[in-house]
Structures are given as C-alpha cells and as structure tokens.
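Q: Predict the bound structure with 6-O-phosphono-beta-D-fructofuranose.
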Amino acid sequence: MHIGILTGGGDCPGLNAVIRAVTLALANECGARVTGIRRGFLGLITREVLPLDTAAVAGILAQGGTILGTHNRADPFHYFGAGGADVSDQAIAYAHELGLDGLVAIGGDGTMGIAHRIAAKGLPVVGVPKTIDNDLCHTDRSFGFDSAVAVVAEALDRLETTARSHGRVMIAETMGRYAGWIALEGGLAGAADVILIPERPYSLPAVVERCRQREAREGYTLICIAEGAREIGAGMTVARTLTDSPDPVRLGGVGAVLMHQLQPLLKSEVRATLLGHVQRGGQPTPFDRVLATRFGWHAAQLVRQGQWGRMVTLEGSAIGSVPLDAVAGRNRPVAPDHPMLATAAGLGVALG
Ligand code: F6P
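A: Predicted complex:
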C-alpha cells in the first residue's frame, strides 16, 4: 500500500505529531509506504513530494508547524496559479502517477471541502481535523487549541502585571475566526474580568460599567476579546481580504477598536495587545501531542480498513469518524447555553 499525506490551511501545533503517527502506524502495522505532499494540495499540482519513513519522522513529535509545509490558497478546483482554473484532473493524475492508493488530508473545513471533492473524483481520502480555533463540527477538541489557549493564558498573566502596576485596562485580542473558544477558555485560564466572543455581541455600556466598577474596587481590568467579537449592531473588524483563499476574510483589530471606544469613557489608560500568530506558533502542549497522535493512529486504521471518505472525530472522549461532507464548509460556534459561559458569568466575568 502507498499512501500520500498532506497538511492544508494554517499551520497548527500538533501537525507534525499527526504526520509522525500516521507514518509510524502505517509502516509498523502494515508495512505501507508513505509519501508527504508538500504545501497542501499545491504539491499535487507542482509535483513536490517527500518520502516519509521511520527515520524521516524521528524527532518531530514536539516540533511546531509542519515538516511538509502548508498553503491556505492551494485549491486544485480553483487554482490561483492558473487564474482560478480547475486543475483537479492534473492533480489526481499526478497522485495516480505516484502510485498512491489514497491520501490522508490534515486540515480544517476548507481542506475537508477540497478533500471531499477530490474523493468524489476517484482519489480515496481520509481526513484529520486541524484548527487552533476548535470550531470544527464533530470535534469537541481539535489539536492545537490547547496550545493556543496556553499562549493566551500566559499573555493574560503577563498583561495583568502591567494592568495592576499602572492601574490600566489591558485588552488581549485572540484568534478564533467566527468562534469564541480560544477567548473563552484562554480568558478563563488567564482570569480575565471581561470576555467578549463573536457569539454574544457586546453592549459597550455594559463593558464600560464593568471597567468602572473595577476602577473603583481593584483599580485595573483585564479584557480578553476574540477577533470575531463585535458590538451589538456593528460588523466584525476585518484586517484584510485574501482573494483565492477558501475563506478570504481575515479578521483582526477589534481589540484596538474597543480600546478607542473605552478610552474617552474611563479614567484609566486603556491599552490593546493583538496576540496574532504567536498563538499558532511553537511547540504543542503535551495534551495536543497526545491528541494529535491518537488522531493520526486512528486515521491509519481507517486507511487500513478501507474506510475512505471519512474524517476522524472526537466526540466526548471517544475517537470515531464521520463522512467528510458532514464537516466541509460548516463550523461549530460556542452554544448560548454552553456551561462554560454560565461558569464565567457565575464568577462575575462580564460577557458583554
Ligand atoms: O483558523 C486559524 C486561524 O489562525 C484563525 O484563528 C485566524 O483568523 C486565521 O487562521 C488567520 O489566518 P492567516 O494565517 O491566513 O492570517
């Protein structure tokens, strides 16, 4: 058996742990040959591959990023390098030329959408969910999320030092796209006084009220705001638009927007810090290393059993799988009745 493996979309701590687990499990359990495709689906178009074996994946478990490289615009059905033309036949022909029996695609909803269409054209695919945002359907926890939350918690710990010392309002803006998971868990872990997420548009007077209370009592305030958060009646803050990307909108800057809204209404100085790609970089936490390893091993079992067209899932504590099209193009926001919101509110955290 000869299996290709690729990583698509943004980089994420734990990708190398999945690559390692898939390669080792297929080599050890059924003697399969594994070939890495470079830079997501782009490598199938530009014919860039890398042989993977036990030696090639040695020492990568704890490395951030992906040894294969990745790409967030490499869609063979709409290829930016050919003016948006469909080059999927060419990509699949190259996979057949390599002698691939199937592909393991590690990525988010965009990658799963492409994987589903590639599978429909005759190249069998197994998917592995990846995102720091934790917003994929059928995946209660995606690897990379715990590592991102750890960065946010540490950042809030550090910002608290300045907030307390200077009597300031310090705002940390997190990633997360249209879901508030990173801000919610990071904010709880870092003892934020205000947590603002896209699923609950905020009332500016409510945020001001909480900051004034804290000005009077504790003298400082920590705010954790998701990049997709917005004031009631306002739109999200868009940093840039990337044409040719499956989701062209890149959010960013709402922390600075909130800073300018709050400053004239408060006595304390207000400062904003955009955490940005710092949340995606560096080593995966031990939790993410183990989760990514379990996902990779399970993907190898789906391949061995010929269960193509499925994506690995984590529902509760059970690893399973669902058809690729159950995930493609969908996302999983924080539900209004999520117990973590009640926990935060019960502790006096303002949720906007
Ligand atoms: O989906 C992961 C993510 O890091 C989001 O949280 C963020 O909005 C986006 O990717 C940033 O993408 P890029 O690296 O293309 O700017």
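A: The radius of gyration is 22 Å.
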